[in-house]
Amino acid sequence: MCLQKMEREAAKLTPKLPKVKEESHFREDKKYRTIPAAPEFRPTIEEFKDPLEYINSIRFKAQKYGICKIIPPTPQSDWLAKTFSETIKPDDFFFQTKRQNVRWLARRGVSDEFYCKLTEFLKKTHKELKAIPRVNSKRIQLYFLYKAVANAGGFDNVTTHSLWGDIASDLKLAPIPTVIDQLKSIYRDNLYDFEQSPDRFIIPSKKSAPSALQSGMRAVKAGGMGMQCVSAPSNDAPIHHFSSDTETDTDTDNENPGADEEESFGFATGRIYSLTSFKKQASRFQRDWFRTPGGTPIKPNLAQIETEYWNIVENSTDHCRVHYGSDLDVKSHGSGFHLDSTNPWNLNILPTLPKSLLRFLPEHVSGITIPMMYVGMVFSTFCWHVEDDYLYSINFLHHGAPKLWYGVSSFFCTQFEQAMKEALPDLFEIQPDLLHHLTTMLSPTELIAAGVPVVRAVQNPGEFMVTFPQAYHGGLNTGFNVAEAVNFATPDWLPFGSLVVRNYKLLKRTHIFSNIELIVNALQLERNPSSVKW
Fold this sequence. Notes:
Elements: H1 2-10, H2 21-24, E1 40-41, H3 51-62, E2 67-70, H4 76-79, H5 84-87, E3 94-101, H6 110-124, E4 134-135, E5 138-139, H7 142-151, H8 155-160, H9 164-170, H10 177-190, H11 192-196, H12 212-215, H13 260-263, E6 268-274, H14 275-289, H15 302-314, E7 321-329, H16 330-333, E8 372-376, E9 381-385, E10 392-400, E11 403-408, H17 413-423, H18 425-430, H19 444-449, E12 455-459, E13 464-467, E14 472-477, E15 481-488, H20 494-506, H21 515-525, H22 529-532
Parallel strand pairs: 1-2
Antiparallel strand pairs: 2-13, 3-6, 3-7, 4-5, 7-8, 8-15, 9-14, 10-13, 10-15, 11-12, 11-14
Helix pairs in contact: 9-10
């Protein structure tokens, strides 16, 4: 980040040498392996007979981690009527993708653009920051100081009209003479020449961000309440068809990060693929991206992929666009579980099992009781989020490369949200409900450094991942794969159901279903005395 670079220079730390892509592109950063592992459970054949009972039995061990992995006791062929390869015909499974520009997934927003431009100005004029600016031991963010002064008419106007007390108040500082003098000095030493320069940064006018329905889902980067609502792209969103090329970018769209696609919150609509054509494109992308200096394709291990992913997200100036087939309703696309399968771990059955309260919904809801399919490629991302209405979720990886998961327990959701807001302050100013749009990734190591406990898991084909109520989770795909996910709610979800009603009301957020209607239906229709005890 430009801000981090400036701080290193201001603190007179020895700057790191520029990375040489060919030499450092595929290193393994061991810090990701130091992230605590999410708990892993292996039920016996007997325990595996009742999924919701088993999940309840491990809840007290697993819930404090937010996510957990469940490994079936026998191969898929033993407990499924037919495997994925026997169920889905790759040439007949068509879906529309969303495009993700990976390097924009952790964008620091307008402020990072400011710091980048300020860095260029300082380099061009052979200047440097005088020091890391502080007032009474409080670090001063130069962007917010610059913004406050610019909105008040500039340094000269603020000084002429004695407005520095207002500037101090805007920065939540006491408007006393000593503070005012320090702010003036910081601005004069670090920002005044920049403000007067033709290369100065223009503060963008505040505008209402597009809704999720207007923009679909996307993520951005430049180099509350714990709620999430997954929205499909607008029916009016254009479908971008592109030629099948061999470039490392998976499409031929405008690469200008200032284009409309990079301005909105959400992912742009991609092209329509079959599983066969998507796998071919995904394999070609991965082969072209991971090459030796001499151009020979290599097969990266998981650690190299994870390291490269976060290098792109946090440091890269190169565009890395990938496609993700997410939120594919099984009613219109087909499920990876065969219709003949009556096993309760079949995600078409699990949400309405006797121990799930969702069986009392008046009708099935896509993505809640109707599973969604997910078709990924290397670097495609499911960004940090919690489930709608704080529900449980369960994800099964049918086929392909592993998924990397990161999780934060509901016990620490407040700390997580605070860390996100501190990392992306101006984005939250423009889009207060940023965490609702499944658009942003922040490194787990950065969250841990901010005091947020994060766990990590590797999900392999044939394994389940369970997320607990109000637990934040996110991650990435390490290659071509196909997964399926759905929600459920056991009686222990009820306190979260009550909490989400209050939280959604504060944010004027719409529920996917009526929690009150669900509970009333359950009380009226439940006939099993042991199930009513909740």
